[in-house]
Amino acid sequence: MPHTDKDLGDNYRTVHHIVLEASEECVEPSEPRARWWSGGVASTSVACFVAPIDLVKSHMQTQVTKKGMVETAAKVIRLRGFMGFYDGFSATALRQMTCTNIRFGIYEAGRYAEPIRDNNFAKLALAGFAGAVGSICGIPTDLINVRMQNDMKESEAERRNYRHVFDALIRIPREEGWRAFYAGGTAAALKASVGTCGQLALYDIVKTELSETFDMEDGFVLHFDSSLISSIFSSIISHPFDVLKTLMMNARPGEFRSIFHACMYMMRFGILSPFRGLAPTMLRKGPATISLFIIYEQLRLRFGYVED
Length: 308
Hints:
mainly alpha, globular, single chain, 72% helix
């Protein structure tokens, strides 16, 4: 029997309906995006566990007499006991909830933009910008943290004796002026910018490459491998800036005439001086970065949202 126009129309609609259903099934759902608070919550959680290592690193960076990590830790216990490892933690927590949260928020908001999504160089540039902006907001708390960590090494007469971060926020501008909040600010911004490139952007790039090359699922193994690789590179490339930042923030007013003067002082132990404290940094940053991204990714998967 010859097919009528009605039969042909019915067949076309049936085939069209089947194609639409198949295409809808093939479309992969968009990955959930992290909430604005995820970076701050994840980084503050990790800071609770790595604060002792961070304090030892800070002491090694500012020491006059060269000491190893174990010897430095023993001195902290001798001076302040085990609770001394948490000197400055109130400033650390406030810095994580502001500085780190801003870095994650800016990067997370920009990484899905069309010019950035598939461009690794654009991701690195975005991360550098996010790190610099976050650092500018977080330099005062970073400075307070460094000072509170190193205060135990000073003589009784020279100790600043900040009771907590808010006490320091009131006293520093009153005693030294507002500009004192940004002592070492240039080094801190450089360190944060370079460190964010090596941490956020590199993590994102490595995660994408591992996922596509080895067909890895968006889960624990992928997050662990990506964060481990990014932590190694981030620690090495940002550490010299971290040493310089710590020296300038812990300095007395007028101790360093310029950032160049601080760089010369940083080299006092020889060519490897910019990497003083690298061992505790690696010991801290490896587990810290892995834990940070695993917590961050879990928050994203559990509480994230899908863009319409």
